[in-house]
Write a structure and sequence with these properties.
Blueprint (H helix, E strand, L loop, with lengths): L10 H13 L13 H12 L10 E6 L2 H10 L9 H5 L5 H4 L2 E8 L11 H4 L1 H20 L3 E6 L15 H4 L9 E10 L15 E2 L4 E2 L5 H4 L24 H40 L5
Antiparallel strand pairs: 1-2, 2-4, 3-4, 5-6
Helix pairs in contact: 2-7
């Protein structure tokens, strides 16, 4: 096995990484075979190596391999199996989580993000989603490189007590884990040995997916690049640029008034949030010192 760091930067390393990136697919069909603890550990270790905002290193993981725990989570955060949504209502068969060999839940410890005194917390709290997303993508790539099939399943605190959680919350979905109130769930990865592989031996995914059941093939580079809005010397737009329609004078005034009102409201919410964060500061400090009960 190649030792970490033994392959230096260059075309060979780039080709290996590119092959894994291009071969990553969402895999939803697994063999009835466990994933070894060694493989799972390496995948989670990859997530730990992902970048975090301000070096907070606040991403946390829950690894599930026990069949009863997988079925408990599946019964609440139900992701319906194919081929049709109606089968969810007609049968009690396991969903995607219940059919997997293992699950990794990705959380963040919000007590470690942003500033301890609450300053600008409304800005920095978005970094928790980014931190978790970076860890998830890194783990997906590591799993792909090791021949393990994965799918990223959406999860968030906002899902609690909604139809996506069958009216329950994450504490009810994970009764064997004491999740602190400042630990927020941001995503789920299901894992397993794939039933099918592609021509390169990587886990194979579906060719069609999504709300409109469209192709999973990616469009070429030009389709994803936003074009430069060049202005010519005579003030006219560049032929390739698109100009949004200009609102009328009355509409401009109404929009400006609405924007001012929204900014004022956000300012009040921000001040209230900073006040609450200052009240929380002693508790956050005790968490950092390991004094939480």
């Amino acid at each position: 096995m190649t030792e970490p760091g033994s392959l230096g930067p260059g075309p060979e390393a780039a080709s290996l990484i590119e092959a894994v990136i291009r071969s990553r697919r969402s895999c939803r069909h697994f063999r009835d075979e466990p994933v070894s603890a060694e493989i799972l550990s390496r995948i989670v270790e990859a997530g730990i190596q992902a970048p975090t905002a301000s070096n907070s290193q606040n991403v946390r993981f829950i690894l599930l391999t026990d069949r009863a725990e997988l079925m408990q989570l599946d019964s609440i955060r139900y992701c319906w199996p194919y081929p049709s949504y109606t089968r969810r209502r007609e049968t009690d068969e396991p969903g995607l989580i219940g059919r997997s060999a293992a699950v990794i839940l990705v959380l963040t410890d919000t007590s470690l993000s942003g500033f301890a005194d609450g300053a600008e917390h409304h800005i920095w709290r978005e970094s928790d989603i980014q931190n978790a997303s970076a860890a998830i993508q890194t783990m997906l790539l590591m799993a792909t490189a090791m021949g393990i099939g994965t799918t990223w399943i959406s999860a968030s605190e906002a899902m609690s007590h909604t139809r996506l959680m069958r009216g329950r919350n994450w504490a009810e979905a994970l009764p064997n884990y004491s999740i602190a109130s400042d630990h927020h769930v941001h995503g789920i990865i299901i894992l397993g040995h794939p039933r099918r592989v592609d021509e390169g031996g990587f886990p194979s995914g579906e060719g069609m997916h999504g709300l409109d059941w469209s192709t999973t093939e990616r469009q070429p580079l030009e389709a994803h690049l936003l074009r430069h809005t060049a202005i010519s010397s005579d003030g006219s737009d560049h032929p390739h640029a698109t100009s949004p329609p200009k609102p009328s004078g009355l509409l401009q005034f109404q929009l400006r008034l609405l924007s001012t009102a929204i900014r004022g409201l956000l300012g009040l919410v921000s001040r209230l949030e900073r006040f609450v964060r200052r009240l929380e500061k002693p508790f956050l400090t005790s968490v950092r010192k390991g004094e939480k009960s």
